[in-house]
Automatic annotation (TrEMBL):
An example molecular function term from Gene Ontology annotations: carbohydrate:proton symporter activity
Alphabetically ordered keywords of this record: Membrane, Transmembrane, Transmembrane helix, Transport
Superkingdom, natural source: Eukaryota
Major facilitator superfamily (MFS) profile domain mapped to chain residues: 9-460
Main location: membrane
Entry's Gene Ontology cellular component terms: membrane
Membrane topology: Multi-pass membrane protein
Protein name: Major facilitator superfamily (MFS) profile domain-containing protein
Lineage: Eukaryota, Fungi, Fungi incertae sedis, Chytridiomycota, Chytridiomycota incertae sedis
Annotated family: Belongs to the major facilitator superfamily. Sugar transporter (TC 2.A.1.1) family.
Membrane-spanning parts: 7-31, 51-70, 82-100, 106-128, 140-160, 172-193, 262-282, 294-313, 325-348, 368-391, 403-426, 438-456
Entry's localization field: Membrane
PANTHER family for this protein: HEXOSE TRANSPORTER, PLASTIDIC GLUCOSE TRANSPORTER 4
Length: 517
Protein backbone atom coordinates (compact mmCIF):
# COMPACT_ATOMS: atom_id res chain seq x y z
CA UNK A 1 0.00 0.00 0.00
CA UNK A 2 1.12 3.57 -0.49
CA UNK A 3 1.93 5.26 2.77
CA UNK A 4 2.11 8.90 1.80
CA UNK A 5 0.95 10.22 5.16
CA UNK A 6 3.34 7.92 7.09
CA UNK A 7 6.18 9.13 4.90
CA UNK A 8 5.26 12.78 5.42
CA UNK A 9 4.91 12.32 9.16
CA UNK A 10 8.27 10.53 9.45
CA UNK A 11 9.89 13.22 7.30
CA UNK A 12 8.44 15.90 9.52
CA UNK A 13 9.65 14.38 12.80
CA UNK A 14 13.10 13.81 11.33
CA UNK A 15 13.38 17.57 11.71
CA UNK A 16 14.50 16.68 15.28
CA UNK A 17 17.65 15.32 13.58
CA UNK A 18 18.16 18.72 12.02
CA UNK A 19 18.32 20.21 15.54
CA UNK A 20 20.88 17.56 16.53
CA UNK A 21 23.02 18.26 13.44
CA UNK A 22 22.75 22.04 13.67
CA UNK A 23 23.94 21.90 17.26
CA UNK A 24 26.88 19.70 16.24
CA UNK A 25 27.97 22.01 13.42
CA UNK A 26 27.30 25.28 15.23
CA UNK A 27 29.98 25.55 17.85
CA UNK A 28 33.21 25.13 15.87
CA UNK A 29 32.49 28.22 13.74
CA UNK A 30 31.21 30.33 16.63
CA UNK A 31 34.40 29.77 18.62
CA UNK A 32 36.37 31.54 15.90
CA UNK A 33 34.16 34.66 15.75
CA UNK A 34 35.72 37.94 16.91
CA UNK A 35 32.82 38.98 19.20
CA UNK A 36 32.80 35.55 20.79
CA UNK A 37 36.55 35.71 21.39
CA UNK A 38 36.12 39.18 22.93
CA UNK A 39 33.41 37.92 25.33
CA UNK A 40 34.88 34.53 26.21
CA UNK A 41 38.61 34.82 25.42
CA UNK A 42 41.42 36.26 27.55
CA UNK A 43 41.15 39.66 25.76
CA UNK A 44 42.80 41.61 22.92
CA UNK A 45 41.18 39.39 20.32
CA UNK A 46 43.18 36.36 21.48
CA UNK A 47 41.54 32.96 20.86
CA UNK A 48 39.37 31.42 23.56
CA UNK A 49 41.67 29.47 25.88
CA UNK A 50 41.87 25.68 25.52
CA UNK A 51 40.16 24.87 28.80
CA UNK A 52 37.25 27.31 28.24
CA UNK A 53 36.93 26.06 24.68
CA UNK A 54 36.82 22.40 25.62
CA UNK A 55 34.37 23.19 28.44
CA UNK A 56 31.98 25.07 26.12
CA UNK A 57 32.20 22.37 23.43
CA UNK A 58 32.00 19.26 25.57
CA UNK A 59 29.46 20.38 28.18
CA UNK A 60 26.75 19.96 25.55
CA UNK A 61 27.54 16.24 25.35
CA UNK A 62 27.13 15.96 29.12
CA UNK A 63 23.58 17.27 28.69
CA UNK A 64 22.89 15.07 25.66
CA UNK A 65 24.17 11.97 27.47
CA UNK A 66 21.76 12.43 30.37
CA UNK A 67 18.97 13.52 28.02
CA UNK A 68 19.37 10.31 26.05
CA UNK A 69 19.17 8.25 29.25
CA UNK A 70 16.08 10.09 30.51
CA UNK A 71 14.25 9.75 27.18
CA UNK A 72 13.23 6.14 27.77
CA UNK A 73 11.29 6.96 30.96
CA UNK A 74 9.74 10.05 29.41
CA UNK A 75 8.71 8.17 26.26
CA UNK A 76 6.99 5.45 28.28
CA UNK A 77 5.29 7.82 30.75
CA UNK A 78 4.11 10.61 28.45
CA UNK A 79 3.90 8.69 25.19
CA UNK A 80 6.26 9.35 22.25
CA UNK A 81 4.42 12.42 20.98
CA UNK A 82 4.20 14.39 24.23
CA UNK A 83 7.75 13.40 25.09
CA UNK A 84 8.92 15.01 21.82
CA UNK A 85 6.91 18.18 22.55
CA UNK A 86 8.35 18.48 26.08
CA UNK A 87 11.90 17.83 24.85
CA UNK A 88 11.55 20.64 22.32
CA UNK A 89 10.43 22.85 25.22
CA UNK A 90 13.56 21.94 27.22
CA UNK A 91 15.69 22.66 24.17
CA UNK A 92 14.06 26.11 23.79
CA UNK A 93 14.90 27.02 27.40
CA UNK A 94 18.55 26.12 26.73
CA UNK A 95 18.58 28.16 23.54
CA UNK A 96 17.09 31.18 25.33
CA UNK A 97 19.83 31.06 28.00
CA UNK A 98 22.59 30.78 25.41
CA UNK A 99 21.16 33.63 23.36
CA UNK A 100 20.94 35.87 26.39
CA UNK A 101 24.37 34.94 27.71
CA UNK A 102 27.59 36.66 26.81
CA UNK A 103 29.34 35.06 29.75
CA UNK A 104 29.97 31.53 30.96
CA UNK A 105 27.37 31.94 33.73
CA UNK A 106 24.54 31.71 31.21
CA UNK A 107 26.30 30.02 28.30
CA UNK A 108 27.25 26.85 30.18
CA UNK A 109 23.84 26.12 31.77
CA UNK A 110 22.28 27.04 28.42
CA UNK A 111 24.41 24.46 26.62
CA UNK A 112 23.75 21.77 29.21
CA UNK A 113 19.98 22.34 29.06
CA UNK A 114 19.84 22.59 25.26
CA UNK A 115 22.04 19.47 25.16
CA UNK A 116 19.59 17.70 27.47
CA UNK A 117 16.79 18.54 25.00
CA UNK A 118 18.84 17.41 22.00
CA UNK A 119 19.75 14.19 23.83
CA UNK A 120 16.08 13.48 24.51
CA UNK A 121 15.18 14.17 20.89
CA UNK A 122 18.07 12.16 19.48
CA UNK A 123 16.47 9.18 21.13
CA UNK A 124 12.77 9.90 20.72
CA UNK A 125 12.76 10.73 17.01
CA UNK A 126 14.14 7.44 15.64
CA UNK A 127 12.02 5.59 18.19
CA UNK A 128 8.84 7.29 16.98
CA UNK A 129 9.82 6.76 13.36
CA UNK A 130 10.56 3.06 13.78
CA UNK A 131 7.22 2.51 15.53
CA UNK A 132 5.23 4.56 13.04
CA UNK A 133 6.80 3.22 9.84
CA UNK A 134 5.52 0.18 7.94
CA UNK A 135 8.13 -2.58 7.94
CA UNK A 136 9.16 -2.38 4.28
CA UNK A 137 9.98 1.34 4.60
CA UNK A 138 11.30 1.35 8.14
CA UNK A 139 15.00 1.49 7.25
CA UNK A 140 14.48 4.25 4.72
CA UNK A 141 12.32 6.35 7.02
CA UNK A 142 14.65 6.03 10.02
CA UNK A 143 17.48 7.00 7.64
CA UNK A 144 15.75 10.30 6.91
CA UNK A 145 16.65 11.13 10.50
CA UNK A 146 20.32 10.81 9.59
CA UNK A 147 19.74 12.87 6.45
CA UNK A 148 18.27 15.61 8.64
CA UNK A 149 21.35 15.47 10.92
CA UNK A 150 23.65 15.98 7.97
CA UNK A 151 21.56 18.85 6.60
CA UNK A 152 21.62 20.41 10.09
CA UNK A 153 25.43 20.23 10.21
CA UNK A 154 25.70 21.82 6.78
CA UNK A 155 23.14 24.52 7.62
CA UNK A 156 25.17 25.48 10.70
CA UNK A 157 28.36 25.66 8.59
CA UNK A 158 26.49 27.91 6.13
CA UNK A 159 24.97 30.22 8.77
CA UNK A 160 28.34 30.58 10.54
CA UNK A 161 30.10 31.26 7.29
CA UNK A 162 27.54 33.91 6.38
CA UNK A 163 27.61 35.65 9.75
CA UNK A 164 31.24 35.39 10.76
CA UNK A 165 32.12 38.90 9.60
CA UNK A 166 29.06 40.63 11.07
CA UNK A 167 30.06 43.17 13.74
CA UNK A 168 29.18 42.68 17.38
CA UNK A 169 27.52 39.95 19.35
CA UNK A 170 24.90 39.39 16.67
CA UNK A 171 27.52 37.34 14.80
CA UNK A 172 27.27 34.52 17.34
CA UNK A 173 23.89 35.24 18.88
CA UNK A 174 21.93 34.99 15.64
CA UNK A 175 23.17 31.45 14.76
CA UNK A 176 22.24 30.38 18.30
CA UNK A 177 18.89 32.19 18.35
CA UNK A 178 17.76 30.75 15.00
CA UNK A 179 17.37 27.45 16.81
CA UNK A 180 14.41 28.97 18.61
CA UNK A 181 12.38 28.71 15.41
CA UNK A 182 13.55 25.15 14.81
CA UNK A 183 12.47 24.00 18.28
CA UNK A 184 9.13 25.82 18.10
CA UNK A 185 8.45 24.38 14.64
CA UNK A 186 9.04 20.82 15.84
CA UNK A 187 6.94 21.23 18.99
CA UNK A 188 4.14 22.97 17.09
CA UNK A 189 4.02 20.29 14.41
CA UNK A 190 3.92 17.48 16.96
CA UNK A 191 0.67 18.86 18.36
CA UNK A 192 -0.93 17.95 15.06
CA UNK A 193 0.52 14.46 14.64
CA UNK A 194 -0.72 11.12 15.99
CA UNK A 195 1.15 9.26 18.73
CA UNK A 196 2.88 5.93 18.14
CA UNK A 197 0.09 3.31 17.81
CA UNK A 198 2.32 0.64 19.31
CA UNK A 199 2.86 2.69 22.42
CA UNK A 200 -0.83 3.64 22.72
CA UNK A 201 -1.67 -0.04 22.70
CA UNK A 202 0.90 -0.59 25.41
CA UNK A 203 -0.89 2.05 27.48
CA UNK A 204 -4.18 0.16 26.96
CA UNK A 205 -5.64 2.88 24.74
CA UNK A 206 -6.84 0.63 21.96
CA UNK A 207 -9.28 3.05 20.35
CA UNK A 208 -6.62 5.79 20.25
CA UNK A 209 -4.09 3.32 18.85
CA UNK A 210 -6.49 2.34 16.09
CA UNK A 211 -7.24 5.93 15.18
CA UNK A 212 -3.51 6.83 15.28
CA UNK A 213 -2.76 3.92 12.93
CA UNK A 214 -5.59 4.97 10.59
CA UNK A 215 -4.22 8.52 10.50
CA UNK A 216 -0.69 7.32 9.92
CA UNK A 217 -1.68 5.06 7.05
CA UNK A 218 -4.55 7.27 5.78
CA UNK A 219 -6.86 4.27 5.79
CA UNK A 220 -10.21 3.52 7.41
CA UNK A 221 -10.46 1.22 10.45
CA UNK A 222 -12.12 -1.57 8.47
CA UNK A 223 -9.30 -1.72 5.89
CA UNK A 224 -7.76 -5.18 5.89
CA UNK A 225 -4.21 -3.80 6.08
CA UNK A 226 -5.11 -1.85 9.21
CA UNK A 227 -6.82 -4.88 10.71
CA UNK A 228 -3.74 -6.98 9.95
CA UNK A 229 -1.33 -4.51 11.45
CA UNK A 230 -3.41 -3.98 14.58
CA UNK A 231 -3.74 -7.71 15.09
CA UNK A 232 -0.03 -8.21 14.67
CA UNK A 233 0.78 -5.49 17.20
CA UNK A 234 -1.83 -6.66 19.70
CA UNK A 235 -0.80 -10.26 19.60
CA UNK A 236 2.80 -9.35 20.18
CA UNK A 237 1.96 -6.93 22.96
CA UNK A 238 0.02 -9.66 24.76
CA UNK A 239 3.15 -11.84 24.81
CA UNK A 240 5.17 -8.96 26.15
CA UNK A 241 2.69 -7.95 28.81
CA UNK A 242 2.76 -11.45 30.18
CA UNK A 243 6.45 -10.79 30.85
CA UNK A 244 5.76 -7.53 32.77
CA UNK A 245 7.11 -3.94 32.80
CA UNK A 246 10.83 -3.61 32.06
CA UNK A 247 13.54 -1.72 33.93
CA UNK A 248 16.96 -0.59 32.69
CA UNK A 249 18.44 -3.62 34.42
CA UNK A 250 16.22 -5.89 32.31
CA UNK A 251 18.11 -4.64 29.27
CA UNK A 252 21.17 -6.41 30.67
CA UNK A 253 19.39 -9.61 31.69
CA UNK A 254 18.49 -12.78 29.82
CA UNK A 255 17.53 -12.27 26.20
CA UNK A 256 17.78 -8.49 26.46
CA UNK A 257 21.53 -8.63 27.10
CA UNK A 258 22.64 -9.56 23.59
CA UNK A 259 20.45 -6.96 21.95
CA UNK A 260 21.48 -4.21 24.35
CA UNK A 261 25.14 -5.00 23.71
CA UNK A 262 24.60 -4.91 19.95
CA UNK A 263 22.85 -1.54 20.19
CA UNK A 264 25.37 0.01 22.57
CA UNK A 265 28.36 -1.18 20.57
CA UNK A 266 27.03 -0.36 17.13
CA UNK A 267 26.60 3.23 18.34
CA UNK A 268 30.07 3.20 19.91
CA UNK A 269 31.66 1.87 16.71
CA UNK A 270 29.77 4.47 14.70
CA UNK A 271 31.52 7.19 16.71
CA UNK A 272 34.85 5.31 16.67
CA UNK A 273 34.97 5.62 12.86
CA UNK A 274 36.29 9.12 13.62
CA UNK A 275 33.55 10.94 11.74
CA UNK A 276 33.15 13.72 14.28
CA UNK A 277 36.88 14.28 14.29
CA UNK A 278 36.30 15.66 10.80
CA UNK A 279 33.23 17.69 11.80
CA UNK A 280 34.60 19.11 15.07
CA UNK A 281 38.28 19.51 14.21
CA UNK A 282 38.38 19.21 10.41
CA UNK A 283 39.52 22.77 9.87
CA UNK A 284 42.54 22.34 12.15
CA UNK A 285 43.29 18.87 10.80
CA UNK A 286 43.28 20.03 7.18
CA UNK A 287 45.61 22.90 8.02
CA UNK A 288 47.98 20.49 9.77
CA UNK A 289 47.88 18.40 6.61
CA UNK A 290 49.12 21.45 4.66
CA UNK A 291 45.78 22.46 3.11
CA UNK A 292 45.42 26.25 3.16
CA UNK A 293 41.73 26.35 2.21
CA UNK A 294 40.91 24.43 5.35
CA UNK A 295 37.57 26.12 6.05
CA UNK A 296 36.34 25.49 2.51
CA UNK A 297 37.50 21.88 2.73
CA UNK A 298 35.41 21.38 5.87
CA UNK A 299 32.37 22.75 4.08
CA UNK A 300 33.02 20.36 1.19
CA UNK A 301 32.97 17.45 3.66
CA UNK A 302 29.63 18.78 4.94
CA UNK A 303 28.18 18.76 1.42
CA UNK A 304 29.54 15.26 0.70
CA UNK A 305 27.98 14.13 3.99
CA UNK A 306 24.52 15.32 2.94
CA UNK A 307 24.67 14.02 -0.63
CA UNK A 308 26.03 10.61 0.36
CA UNK A 309 23.13 9.98 2.70
CA UNK A 310 20.76 9.67 -0.30
CA UNK A 311 22.23 6.35 -1.52
CA UNK A 312 21.63 5.02 2.00
CA UNK A 313 17.92 5.79 1.78
CA UNK A 314 17.81 3.60 -1.30
CA UNK A 315 20.14 0.81 -0.19
CA UNK A 316 19.21 0.15 3.42
CA UNK A 317 15.87 -1.57 2.71
CA UNK A 318 17.08 -3.24 -0.49
CA UNK A 319 20.55 -4.58 0.29
CA UNK A 320 19.84 -5.05 3.99
CA UNK A 321 21.58 -3.75 7.09
CA UNK A 322 24.54 -6.13 7.19
CA UNK A 323 25.64 -5.68 3.58
CA UNK A 324 25.35 -1.92 3.84
CA UNK A 325 27.36 -1.78 7.08
CA UNK A 326 30.06 -4.13 5.77
CA UNK A 327 30.32 -2.23 2.51
CA UNK A 328 30.70 1.00 4.51
CA UNK A 329 33.46 -0.58 6.60
CA UNK A 330 35.46 -1.32 3.44
CA UNK A 331 35.01 2.14 1.92
CA UNK A 332 35.84 3.96 5.17
CA UNK A 333 38.88 1.76 5.68
CA UNK A 334 40.25 2.63 2.23
CA UNK A 335 39.62 6.34 2.88
CA UNK A 336 41.39 6.43 6.24
CA UNK A 337 44.34 4.26 5.16
CA UNK A 338 45.09 6.51 2.19
CA UNK A 339 44.72 9.70 4.28
CA UNK A 340 47.10 8.24 6.90
CA UNK A 341 49.63 7.01 4.32
CA UNK A 342 49.73 10.26 2.34
CA UNK A 343 49.95 12.40 5.49
CA UNK A 344 52.84 10.26 6.78
CA UNK A 345 54.73 10.17 3.47
CA UNK A 346 54.37 13.90 2.73
CA UNK A 347 54.26 15.75 6.03
CA UNK A 348 53.64 19.53 5.85
CA UNK A 349 55.70 21.99 7.85
CA UNK A 350 53.83 24.60 9.87
CA UNK A 351 54.83 27.82 11.58
CA UNK A 352 55.05 26.79 15.26
CA UNK A 353 53.64 30.15 16.44
CA UNK A 354 50.80 30.90 14.04
CA UNK A 355 50.08 27.41 12.74
CA UNK A 356 50.27 28.76 9.15
CA UNK A 357 51.35 26.31 6.43
CA UNK A 358 55.03 26.86 5.48
CA UNK A 359 55.67 24.00 3.07
CA UNK A 360 53.34 21.36 1.72
CA UNK A 361 52.90 19.05 -1.25
CA UNK A 362 49.84 20.20 -3.19
CA UNK A 363 49.17 16.78 -4.76
CA UNK A 364 49.27 15.19 -1.32
CA UNK A 365 46.82 17.87 -0.12
CA UNK A 366 44.39 17.08 -2.93
CA UNK A 367 44.74 13.37 -2.24
CA UNK A 368 43.94 13.98 1.45
CA UNK A 369 40.81 15.94 0.55
CA UNK A 370 39.62 13.34 -1.97
CA UNK A 371 40.11 10.39 0.38
CA UNK A 372 38.60 12.22 3.33
CA UNK A 373 35.55 12.62 1.09
CA UNK A 374 35.72 8.89 0.25
CA UNK A 375 35.65 8.20 3.99
CA UNK A 376 32.71 10.56 4.53
CA UNK A 377 30.88 8.93 1.63
CA UNK A 378 31.50 5.52 3.23
CA UNK A 379 30.14 6.74 6.56
CA UNK A 380 27.15 8.74 5.40
CA UNK A 381 25.87 6.12 2.98
CA UNK A 382 26.11 3.25 5.49
CA UNK A 383 27.05 3.49 9.17
CA UNK A 384 25.60 6.97 9.65
CA UNK A 385 21.99 5.89 9.19
CA UNK A 386 22.65 2.15 9.61
CA UNK A 387 23.60 2.38 13.28
CA UNK A 388 20.32 4.20 14.05
CA UNK A 389 18.25 1.76 12.02
CA UNK A 390 19.71 -1.32 13.75
CA UNK A 391 19.38 0.30 17.18
CA UNK A 392 15.70 1.06 16.82
CA UNK A 393 14.61 -2.26 15.40
CA UNK A 394 16.35 -4.98 17.39
CA UNK A 395 14.57 -4.51 20.74
CA UNK A 396 11.28 -6.08 21.81
CA UNK A 397 8.66 -3.41 22.59
CA UNK A 398 8.98 -4.07 26.30
CA UNK A 399 12.65 -3.05 26.26
CA UNK A 400 12.66 -0.80 23.22
CA UNK A 401 12.49 2.69 24.70
CA UNK A 402 15.02 1.88 27.42
CA UNK A 403 17.32 -0.03 25.07
CA UNK A 404 17.30 2.75 22.49
CA UNK A 405 17.99 5.23 25.29
CA UNK A 406 21.05 3.26 26.46
CA UNK A 407 22.36 2.99 22.91
CA UNK A 408 21.88 6.70 22.20
CA UNK A 409 23.62 7.52 25.47
CA UNK A 410 26.50 5.34 24.27
CA UNK A 411 26.63 7.40 21.05
CA UNK A 412 26.87 10.63 23.06
CA UNK A 413 29.32 9.15 25.53
CA UNK A 414 31.79 8.25 22.76
CA UNK A 415 31.03 11.52 21.04
CA UNK A 416 32.12 13.27 24.24
CA UNK A 417 35.19 11.07 24.87
CA UNK A 418 36.50 11.50 21.31
CA UNK A 419 35.62 15.19 21.10
CA UNK A 420 37.45 15.81 24.34
CA UNK A 421 40.53 13.67 23.79
CA UNK A 422 41.42 13.88 20.08
CA UNK A 423 42.94 17.39 20.23
CA UNK A 424 45.33 16.09 22.87
CA UNK A 425 46.25 13.12 20.66
CA UNK A 426 46.71 15.09 17.44
CA UNK A 427 48.00 18.58 18.28
CA UNK A 428 51.71 19.27 17.59
CA UNK A 429 52.36 20.48 21.14
CA UNK A 430 50.54 17.49 22.65
CA UNK A 431 50.52 13.89 21.34
CA UNK A 432 51.53 15.15 17.86
CA UNK A 433 49.98 12.21 16.02
CA UNK A 434 48.81 14.54 13.18
CA UNK A 435 47.47 12.73 10.09
CA UNK A 436 48.63 9.39 11.51
CA UNK A 437 45.47 9.42 13.60
CA UNK A 438 43.81 8.09 10.44
CA UNK A 439 45.53 4.73 11.13
CA UNK A 440 43.91 4.63 14.55
CA UNK A 441 40.49 5.27 13.00
CA UNK A 442 41.20 2.59 10.38
CA UNK A 443 41.91 0.00 13.09
CA UNK A 444 38.70 0.92 14.93
CA UNK A 445 36.66 0.82 11.69
CA UNK A 446 37.99 -2.68 11.04
CA UNK A 447 36.98 -3.72 14.57
CA UNK A 448 33.47 -2.36 13.88
CA UNK A 449 33.25 -4.43 10.68
CA UNK A 450 34.31 -7.61 12.50
CA UNK A 451 31.69 -6.84 15.16
CA UNK A 452 28.94 -6.52 12.54
CA UNK A 453 30.00 -9.66 10.69
CA UNK A 454 29.96 -11.89 13.76
CA UNK A 455 27.29 -10.32 15.95
CA UNK A 456 24.68 -8.25 14.10
CA UNK A 457 21.86 -10.24 12.47
CA UNK A 458 19.95 -9.08 9.38
CA UNK A 459 16.64 -7.39 10.26
CA UNK A 460 15.65 -6.08 6.83
CA UNK A 461 11.97 -6.56 5.97
CA UNK A 462 10.98 -8.14 9.30
CA UNK A 463 8.06 -6.74 11.29
CA UNK A 464 9.41 -5.37 14.58
CA UNK A 465 7.38 -8.18 16.16
CA UNK A 466 9.27 -10.83 14.14
CA UNK A 467 12.72 -9.68 15.16
CA UNK A 468 12.18 -11.62 18.42
CA UNK A 469 11.82 -14.83 16.50
CA UNK A 470 15.00 -14.07 14.60
CA UNK A 471 16.94 -13.68 17.84
CA UNK A 472 15.33 -16.78 19.38
CA UNK A 473 16.11 -18.89 16.31
CA UNK A 474 19.80 -19.08 17.21
CA UNK A 475 20.74 -18.58 13.54
CA UNK A 476 24.33 -17.22 13.30
CA UNK A 477 24.34 -13.55 12.21
CA UNK A 478 26.40 -14.29 9.08
CA UNK A 479 23.66 -16.67 7.88
CA UNK A 480 20.74 -14.57 9.12
CA UNK A 481 19.93 -13.00 5.72
CA UNK A 482 18.36 -16.36 4.88
CA UNK A 483 16.07 -16.31 7.96
CA UNK A 484 12.37 -16.83 7.22
CA UNK A 485 9.61 -16.02 9.73
CA UNK A 486 7.70 -19.14 10.78
CA UNK A 487 4.02 -19.59 10.12
CA UNK A 488 2.94 -19.55 13.75
CA UNK A 489 3.37 -15.78 13.75
CA UNK A 490 1.58 -15.40 10.44
CA UNK A 491 -0.27 -12.11 10.96
CA UNK A 492 -2.82 -13.12 8.40
CA UNK A 493 -4.11 -15.81 10.70
CA UNK A 494 -4.52 -13.39 13.63
CA UNK A 495 -5.93 -10.76 11.35
CA UNK A 496 -8.71 -13.06 10.24
CA UNK A 497 -9.49 -13.92 13.83
CA UNK A 498 -9.43 -10.24 14.72
CA UNK A 499 -11.56 -9.27 11.73
CA UNK A 500 -14.10 -11.87 12.84
CA UNK A 501 -14.31 -10.25 16.29
CA UNK A 502 -14.62 -6.81 14.74
CA UNK A 503 -17.52 -7.95 12.60
CA UNK A 504 -19.20 -9.52 15.61
CA UNK A 505 -18.84 -6.22 17.52
CA UNK A 506 -20.33 -4.26 14.66
CA UNK A 507 -23.23 -6.72 14.49
CA UNK A 508 -23.77 -6.39 18.27
CA UNK A 509 -23.74 -2.60 18.06
CA UNK A 510 -26.21 -2.72 15.19
CA UNK A 511 -28.63 -4.96 17.06
CA UNK A 512 -28.30 -2.80 20.23
CA UNK A 513 -29.14 0.25 18.13
CA UNK A 514 -32.16 -1.53 16.66
CA UNK A 515 -33.37 -2.56 20.13
CA UNK A 516 -32.87 1.01 21.42
CA UNK A 517 -34.86 2.47 18.52
C1 LIG B 1 26.29 10.65 14.30
C2 LIG B 1 26.79 12.02 14.66
C3 LIG B 1 27.51 12.61 13.47
C4 LIG B 1 26.64 12.58 12.25
C5 LIG B 1 27.40 13.00 11.03
C6 LIG B 1 25.37 10.78 13.14
O1 LIG B 1 24.79 9.56 12.84
O2 LIG B 1 25.64 10.01 15.39
O3 LIG B 1 27.62 11.94 15.77
O4 LIG B 1 27.90 13.93 13.74
O5 LIG B 1 26.11 11.29 12.05
O6 LIG B 1 26.58 13.10 9.92
Amino acid sequence: MTNTSTILICLFVSFGGFLFGYDTGLISGILEMEAFKADFGPGNGAPVGASTKSLIVSILSVGTFFGALAAGQLADKLGRRWAIICSSGVFLIGVALQTAGHNLGLMLPGRIIAGFGVGLLSDLIPLYQAEAAPKHLRGTLVSTYQLAITIGILAAFGVNQGLQNVDGRASYRVPIAIQFFFGAFLAGGMFLLPDSPRNLLRLNRRADALSALCRLRSRPAHDVEIINEMAEMEQHLRFEQELGEASYMDCFRGKGYRRTMIAIWIQAFQQLTGVNFIFYYGTTFFRQAGIEQAYLTSTITGVVNVLSTFPALYMIDRMGRRKVLLMGTTIMLIGQLVVGAVGTAYPATLDPNTGAVLTSNSKAGICTIVFTCVFIYGFASTWGPGAWVVTTEIFPLRLRSKGVALATASNWFWNFVLGFTTPYIVDPDEGDLGPKIAFLWAALILAGGVFVYFLVPETKGLALEDVDELFDSGIPPWKSSAFIVSDKHNPHHDAMEFAGKQNANIENQKSEATIGA
